[in-house]
Design goal:
Layout lengths: L1 H31 L5 H18 L2 E3 L23 E3 L11 H9 L1
Amino acid sequence: MNALLIALIAGIGAGALYAMLGSGIVIAFRGSGVINFGHGAVAGYTAYTFDELRESGSLFLPWFDPIPEFGFLKTLKLNNIPVRIDIFDNVSFDNKPNLALLFLSVY
């Protein structure tokens, strides 16, 4: 019974996510007449961020780098803004429950 309840809650959560994505795409299409691929891009970046946080514990912010990778500005070392943020800092979270990892990634 307990496993059924957990599966039911997980299924309702996934179904709600699919419903929100689908209704957002339909509303954007009816409003503009053009298929908006931004919903898929945001969902893909969210999945990438979740996977990166779960595997390595560090968050990469590519849009936060004000100085481009090319040119002479990168050699001047003017960039003091962090582009990679390490969250776990050498702490092993291998045996922790998934819910605790979710709260750590949100916090």
